[in-house]
Amino acid sequence: MEVSIDDIKRMFDTNVSGVIYGSKAVVEHFKRGVPGALINVGSLLDCYLKLLR
What we know:
Pfam families: adh_short
Largest sheet: none
Oligomer: single chain
Distance between the termini: 8 Å
């Protein structure tokens, strides 16, 4: 099965850029003294399954 470059770019943008933007937004709250925890969870299986579609 062949995966297009556009599919790979979309997957990368979702999986990497989403984490970066989300983390950046939360860090701004932490800088203001808002307590909390930042937990990023990823799945290699999800990436693999998307490539198989």
